[in-house]
Structures are given as structure tokens and as C-alpha cells.
């Protein structure tokens, strides 16, 4: 297992055919899972600066990450900003203003040789329809959302000649990844489904978004804590009483410390989390 010398940066990124730009001195290891035409990868790096311990002793990415993420095309959202973007409604997990702006930007339809933008009603319907109810359980709900993310959803538009026709709204621009927006945030407080207890929220360490949709979730632990504790924490988050409404969108979840990292997808049991294989450690 590769031992990181100075510090560890853990960051989720998306790449289509090739990885984003990364600084020359950025030594890394990647693990990937297929998501449509993208690889969703978790990137680990060493020798890039300092980290800052939180009250639990876990190491988070601060100044060093910001510079690297900026070069990779990611925008940082602070803890306060991620609350503001949800109008302090912590039950919301999608950054809807960002999603709406992106749906307007990346989608259009063609009729009789002319291109048109979708109606506001269709855009709003697409946002609402992505929020699939958890009534059929987390796994089934996650599968339904996955299909929407991959294939989009059809909506009927009233055309200028009075006719009506259905066209597809895509949540992610798979053909032109540079048209999507990429954000990450830390300390993402989410209101629990069950509010009867004293603690009303759960707070994953790092969440990564594409077009405002939370697709990657990371839990970090200090070296003295087994990463199985982080895995158990992520599994616990998915409990019906906690924050499954965040995990129904996620395409990859990860737990790690300076010595070991494991990753999985929503609904994966503890014994089936995967350890990354160390290949091509230099990017």
C-alpha cells in the first residue's frame, strides 16, 4: 500500500477520455467507476502542502486543495455557502439554482431547422422529477435517478405553429463535459428524515457536485481510526431515518485515512467495499 509522505488530498473528479489538468508535481493514485461516458474517480495525492485537523483529528483539504481544484476546473463552496444555496433548508441536497442554470444552458431542441430553449415549466419539471421519492427504497430510487442522469427525461413543448412535441432534457452534457459545472464542498449538513432525536442533521465530510447534483461523498478518518469506522458511518447515513435522500443521487462513496482507502456505491455492504489497486501512480 502506498504510504503518503506529507499529506493526503482526496478529491473526486470526472474525466471524459482524458483527465483534467493537474500540476506537474502532483503525484497521485486514481480509482474509478464507470458512470455513463465518464469515469468517476477518486484522486489521492501527496507532497502538496499542509492539511488542517478538525476537532475529531480527521484531515481535511484546505488551502492546498483549493489551488489544485481550481487548476482542475472545480469551484469550492464553503460550508456557509452550501447552506445559502439551499436557502438554509437542509433537507434539500441538490443545489437547485445551479442545476436550473445548467439545464437552461446545456439543453435545447430543434424544430424545422431552428433551435429553441425549453420552457421554464419543462425545466422546473425536470428538476422536480429528478427528486424521485424514496417510497420504493433507496436502491430502487437510486436506480431510477441513475437512468435519468444517463438518458435524460422527455418533456412536451408547445411549438410556434401550435403543435406539441416531446424533447429530451439532459441533466449532464455527456458530449461536451466542459459545459458542465463542477463544485465541491465540505461539512455538508443534511437534515435527517427522522427528527425525533436530539441531533437533527448528519454531516458528510466532502460532497462533490456536477451541475448541482451531489454525485460523490467522502468520509475521512485520522490514521489511528480504522477506515471500517468511516465505512460504517457512510452506511449509517443511508439508513431510512438518516439521510438516504442525499445518497440516492451519489454514484460513488469513499472512506479513507492516510494509510488505506476503500470505495463503493450506494447500498454496498461493509464486506464488499473495494480497495484501490495502485497503478500508474504518476499523472
Description:
The chain is an alpha+beta fold and 283 residues long. It has two domains: 9-91 and 178-275, no CATH class; 96-173, no CATH class. The chain has helices at 63-71, 79-84, 96-106, 120-130, 138-151, 227-237, 244-247, and strands spanning 9-15, 27-35, 38-46, 52-53, 59-60, 75-77, 109-111, 114-116, 153-158, 164-169, 182-186, 190-191, 201-202, 206-210, 213-220, 252-256, 261-264, 274-275. It is elongated. Residues 1-34 and 36-64 have low confidence and may be disordered.
Helix- and strand-based class? alpha+beta
Distance between the termini: 18 Å
User: In what order do the strands lie side by side in the largest sheet?
Assistant: 6-11-14-15-16-17-18
| Largest sheet geometry | 7 strands, mixed
Number of domains: 2
| E-strand count | 18
Q: What fraction, in percent, of the residue positions are helical?
A: 10-25%
The unreliable regions are 1-34, 36-64
**Oligomeric grouping of the chains:** single chain
Secondary structure layout:
Elements: E1 9-15, E2 27-35, E3 38-46, E4 52-53, E5 59-60, H1 63-71, E6 75-77, H2 79-84, H3 96-106, E7 109-111, E8 114-116, H4 120-130, H5 138-151, E9 153-158, E10 164-169, E11 182-186, E12 190-191, E13 201-202, E14 206-210, E15 213-220, H6 227-237, H7 244-247, E16 252-256, E17 261-264, E18 274-275
Parallel strand pairs: 6-11, 15-16
Antiparallel strand pairs: 1-3, 2-3, 4-5, 7-8, 9-10, 11-14, 12-13, 14-15, 16-17, 17-18
Amino acid at each position: 500500500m502506498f504510504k503518503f509522505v506529507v499529506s493526503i488530498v482526496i478529491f473526486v473528479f470526472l474525466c471524459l477520455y482524458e483527465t483534467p489538468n493537474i500540476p506537474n508535481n502532483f503525484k497521485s493514485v486514481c480509482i474509478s467507476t464507470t458512470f455513463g461516458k465518464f469515469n468517476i474517480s477518486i484522486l489521492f495525492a501527496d507532497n502538496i502542502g499542509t492539511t488542517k485537523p478538525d476537532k475529531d483529528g480527521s484531515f481535511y483539504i484546505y488551502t492546498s486543495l483549493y489551488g489544485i481544484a481550481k487548476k482542475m476546473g472545480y469551484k469550492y463552496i464553503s460550508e456557509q455557502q452550501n447552506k445559502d444555496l439551499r436557502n438554509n433548508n437542509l433537507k434539500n441536497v441538490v443545489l437547485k439554482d445551479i442545476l436550473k442554470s445548467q439545464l437552461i444552458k446545456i439543453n435545447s431542441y430543434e424544430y424545422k431547422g431552428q433551435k429553441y430553449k425549453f420552457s421554464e415549466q419543462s425545466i422546473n419539471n425536470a428538476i422536480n422529477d429528478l427528486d424521485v421519492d424514496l417510497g420504493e427504497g433507496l436502491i430502487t430510487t437510486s436506480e431510477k435517478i441513475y437512468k435519468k442522469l444517463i438518458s435524460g427525461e422527455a418533456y412536451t413543448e408547445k411549438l410556434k405553429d401550435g403543435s406539441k412535441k416531446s424533447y429530451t432534457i439532459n441533466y449532464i452534457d455527456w458530449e461536451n463535459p466542459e459545459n458542465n459545472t463542477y463544485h465541491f464542498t465540505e461539512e455538508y449538513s443534511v437534515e435527517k428524515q427522522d427528527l425525533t432525536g436530539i441531533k437533527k442533521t448528519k454531516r458528510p465530510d466532502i460532497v462533490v457536485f456536477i451541475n448541482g447534483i451531489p454525485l460523490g461523498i467522502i468520509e475521512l478518518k485520522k490514521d489511528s481510526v480504522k477506515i471500517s469506522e468511516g465505512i460504517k458511518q457512510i452506511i449509517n447515513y443511508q439508513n431510512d431515518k438518516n439521510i438516504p435522500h442525499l445518497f440516492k443521487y451519489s454514484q460513488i462513496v469513499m472512506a479513507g485515512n492516510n494509510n488505506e482507502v476503500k470505495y463503493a456505491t450506494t447500498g454496498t455492504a461493509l464486506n464488499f467495499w473495494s480497495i484501490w489497486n495502485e497503478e500508474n501512480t504518476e499523472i
